[in-house]
Amino acid sequence: MVKVWVLNGPNLNLLGNREPKIYGSGTLEELNEEIVNRGRQLGLAVQCYQSNHEGWLVDKIHAAAGEADCLIINPAAYSHYSIAIRDAVAAIAVPVIEVHLSNIAAREEFRHRSLITPVAAGQISGFGKRSYILALEAAKLMLIGS
């Protein structure tokens, strides 16, 4: 079975409480359950992870190179300034899909630029939790086909 890892960055553990008008009212646990279930329907074995620590995320990206067939990542605030995460994504030979719950291009100007996007296979943002579901569907198309 095709293995997909989903990595979530800082503050996503606060989903459900953090700015629900922007990020929705569902929790990270609920989101992870939906992602895993949809992945199973698509024939994907999905594992979800979250950390507020940049170095841990870098280590997990490195580990994906030997364990996962695709990586879906929401680097959160690290999208806009983490060269370490950008370089880790660029260093692995695993397709990476960047996701964001909100439309980062429609938010504060400092959020408009992602360092990850140029080294990712693609970016999906602005569809709330559906961003992850769309990323799973994109992963399936890239790895298995229609």
TrEMBL record:
Keyword field: Amino-acid biosynthesis, Aromatic amino acid biosynthesis, Lyase
Gene: aroQ
Description of how the protein assembles with itself and partners: Homododecamer.
Any one GO BP annotation for this protein: amino acid biosynthetic process
Pfam families (UniProt xref): DHquinase_II
The family this protein is said to belong to: Belongs to the type-II 3-dehydroquinase family.
Species of provenance: Metallumcola ferriviriculae
Protein name: 3-dehydroquinate dehydratase
Gene3D superfamilies, sorted: Dehydroquinase, class II
Alphabetical list of SUPFAM superfamilies matching this protein: Type II 3-dehydroquinate dehydratase (SSF52304)
Pathway listed: Metabolic intermediate biosynthesis; chorismate biosynthesis; chorismate from D-erythrose 4-phosphate and phosphoenolpyruvate: step 3/7
GO molecular function: 3-dehydroquinate dehydratase activity
Annotated site, Transition state stabilizer, chain positions: 18
Alphabetical list of PANTHER family matching this protein: CATABOLIC 3-DEHYDROQUINASE (PTHR21272)
Active-site positions on this chain: 23, 100
Main function: Catalyzes a trans-dehydration via an enolate intermediate.
UniProt xrefs under CDD domains: DHQase_II
Protein residues bound to substrate: 74, 80, 87, 101-102, 111
